Amino acid sequence: MGILPWDNWLYNTDYKKDQVNSLHNQAMQLQGDISAACKAFNEDLNNYKSLIAGNGALVVINNVIKMDDLNYKDFLVKVDEVEEPPAADTVFTMGSMISEAAGTFALMKVVMNLKEIVADTSEGTFDALAEDASEGEIDTFVDALSETMEPVEDEVALSLEDAAPEAIGDVFEGASFSTIGSLGLGVFAAVGIDAIFGMLNGQKEASALDAQIKDLQDAVDKSNTYLDSIKKKQTQIQQGIVDEEKRFVGLIESLAIVGADKGTPTNKPNFPYKYDATLANVDKFTGAVDPPGAMALALKQYGTFASLRNLWAVYSGKFKAPAKPSKSAFLQGVEMFESVSANEVSQYFLVLEEFSDGIKDADD
For residues 318, 322, 326 and 327, what is the CA-based torsion angle, rounded to 10 degrees? Predict the structure, then answer.
C-alpha cells in the first residue's frame, strides 16, 4: 500500500484525501493487528489440535482395552475401511507420538476417523471416555475432534468477495477453525483492499472516486469483522484447551484403574500428570521433548495396551482349531517395549485378559 499521488487528484477534494488517508491508516493498522492475531490464534489452535488428538488416542486405548472380542473384531473391520489420514496432516508431532506409541496398531488412523468409526461400529463398542463419563460425552468429543481436524477450505475466502459487510460475520462463523486460522492476511486479497488502492490511484471523476472510497470502506469493515471473528474463535479455542487438559487428567485416572474391579493390578501412571488446567501449562501437557509432556508419556505407557491387543489378534488369528494360541509363547515373542518393562507388559496382558474370552481360553 504505497502513498497515493495526491497531486493528480481533482481540484477541491481535500476532504476526500483525508477520508482515504484515514482508511489507508486503518488498513495499515489492520495488517499488523491481523498478523499478530493470526500468529497467536494458530499457536493456540496447534496446541488444541495436539491435545484433542492425544486425548482421542487415549479415548481409543481406553475403549480398546474394554472391548469384548466381537466388538474388537467389528472395530478392526471398520478401521480397515476408513481412509488413511493425509501424510502432511496438522498434528505433526502429536501424530508421530501417537503412531509410535501404538506400534503396529493404526492408532492415528483411528483418531482422524473417530467420528465415522464410532457411528458405524456396533453399539457398545465405544462405551465411555472415562469410568464416570456422562451419556453422550463421546459424541461431544468426536464432534469437537472432527471440527478441529477439518481441512482448510478455499470457499470462505472466495465468498468474501461478494458478501456484504453485514453478512461477513455469518461467513466467518460457519468457517472451520483451520480455515479461519489459515486465511490471515489473505483476507486483504479476498476483500480487495490492495486492488482498491490501485484503482484509487489517479481517479479523475468524483463519482468514480466516491465509488472506490465506498468499496474501500466496505473492505476495511470486512477486515475488521475478520479480526473480531478470529479473536472470538480464539477465545473458544482457549476454553477448549482448558477443557481438554481436564479431560486428559480424567482419562489418565480412568486408565489407571481399568480392570481393577475385576481384580487385576492397577495401571498407575509412571509420570506426573496432575497439572492445573490453564493456558500457561499447555506445554506441560503437550510438550514433545526436553522434557516430554504428560501426554507423550501417557501415550508411551498406555499405548502398550493398543499394541498388545492388536498383536494378540494377529498372533491368535493364525491358529485353527483344535490348535490353541499360547499366552506364554506370545509374551516371549513380543518385542520388548521401550517405555515399559517385561513385567509391566505381562501385567497389562492380564488386564486385557479380563475383557477377552479369546485370551482367557488360550493355553497358558
Answer: 90
